[in-house]
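ugh ok so i messed up the first submission bc i forgot one of the chains. this is the corrected input, ALL of the components this time, i swear. 657 residues overall. if the numbers dont match what u have on ur side tell me asap before i send this to the collaborators (the ones from the other lab, u know who)
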Amino acid sequence: MEQTLAEKVWERHVVHRADGEPDLLYIDLHLVHEVTSPQAFDGLRLHGRGVRRPDLTVATMDHNVPTTEGPVIDDTSARQMLALQTNAEEFGITLYPWGGAGQGIVHVIGPEMGYTQPGMTIVCGDSHTSTHGAFGALAIGIGTSEVEHVLATQTLPQNRVKTMSVTVDGELPANCSAKDIILAIINRIGTSGGVGHVIEYRGSAIRGLSMEGRMTICNMSIEGGARAGMVAPDDTTFTYVEGRPHAPKGADWERALEDWRSLPTDDDATFDAEVAIDASSLRPFVSWGTNPAQSVTIDEAVPDPDSLGEPHRIEAARRALAYMALAPGTPMREIRPDTIFIGSCTNSRIEDLRVAAEIVAGKQIASGLRALVVPGSVAVKARAEQEGLDRVFRDAGFEWRGAGCSMCLGMNPDILQPGDRCASTSNRNFEGRQGKGGRTHLVSPRVAAATAIAGHFTTPEDL
Amino acid sequence: MEPISVIEGTALPIDRSDVDTDQIIPAEYLKRIERTGFGPFLFAEWRKDPDFVLNDPRYEGASIMIAGDNFGSGSSREHAPWAIEDAGFRAIIAPSFADIFRNNCTKIGLLPVELRGESVRALMDAVLDDPSTRIVVDLRSTVVRAPGLDEVFDVEDFTRWRLLEGLDDIGLTMRNESKVTAFEQTRPGWLPTA
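and heres the new structure output, hopefully the right one now
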């Protein structure tokens, strides 16, 4: 039978299937971080259970960690980090701790070290696990009870999902990036458009993206409600994976490659839902509201809620504009953020930093602005420093930080103050996401960097 | 996990769509390493508004939450259902839920109930109008009953059985351990290990 990529990966991992039950899937890689795991390890201890496959379990600290030098001043964060360290030691799990070489955002270090490979099942107690789908892996965000389940059994019961294709064909304009593609997709399908589905991103514009760009797109699948997002593996994927520390070597590499080439969706396979987007029509996107579907292109203005049709959308837009302190009709380019955040599992990889650095090189950020660059991992930070990007950012007035989730979700000291407005390369503009009362506008690294220089939303072309 | 069969009580109306888990429990409250004690932080920010419905004494003691479309979107934090459960709720009724949130609820014995949009609207209005309105969620017959409403809801048979029995998922999976072991023998040798 003709199958989609998602179906192929799913079928290969079914351990147990019975009528009226969810499929029991084997999990190839379980990524663990400090926030959603302590209660899972406690559960194991409570029931006298161990970790079935510590060798398929990889832990790091990212959500809470400070991105500045010095001790962890927040006691509760320190307690959570210590708990992960203790649990990793007790259960024999490889941990990349804060302060160590391999540390970073869990969705940045997995691919970077070659743990993430095509055709795998990957889970993590984090909704942005969908990132790893960029490699043609089935990567699913799970809750803490499921973390405990995977630790104990290396499997996960999963109800069957539907498939959705999102085809992005055509040439992406030079001033657009992967972030604009995914913001446009979420704008189109809405925050719940993908519920119950695994999205496969297809089409020439997706094929033309680097792995970093594909990761940005898959990362935000959850913002469209999808269970996961995937891109079929191709030569771009294989070139990225080859030679990384945990990638297959020698004869294994050849065997893996042959297998991975069989993963893409069969020609006659069908999807439960299909969406098509014309890449050539895209423009840079900026969010104006408090969910990631509430966005417009940078050439537009803050919409009038009454123009949005359905009553619940009108009501949601009114509340969002009140929270964001924005008036309908305000051109997006006239909005002036006071904070710029370049980072998060969406846009903190070396390519993102290179793009932003090129834009700010030799320029100064607008006066009064606070601008942060938070690399996704210690390795990304080291690479950027080798290339001199840290100097470029610092000279332009940016703060150059250590690796972590940082201001994406405000669990460490990097937070917005009430009323602060931030141009952020992260993934969520929910109320208070980056700090109580903070106002988030989601943008690409290009727009974030240009906005830092201009002091209002803009693109590099208009500087 | 406590078994669920019939949940009967008053309800709290959260009359908004796209309520994300950052609102249900903001990130700053996720640093506890215990599973309990999150109830006081439920809707921590919205609660600072004295007019927020959770501060209305007429809704005290509610065991059912009624919400808008796409409830529980965003983060996979199970702290969100933990906070709702810790605050005394046993079921949530909404037109739709975010996938991970719904899944997390069923793992801890908090019942997510999807009803048609019009029915949820009617329940919401009834509860807003009269906070003492009593609602029955019967998992045995998969029916929600309230004045003027008697509607069947969908729940997968396996989930229903597990919730009715209060069964631990891990224990259920352990019954298939020999299959897991057999599967492990078939995994390709190139797959990464830590």
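quick check: The radius of gyration of chain A is 21 Å. that seems consistent at least. Chain A has a mean pLDDT of 97.
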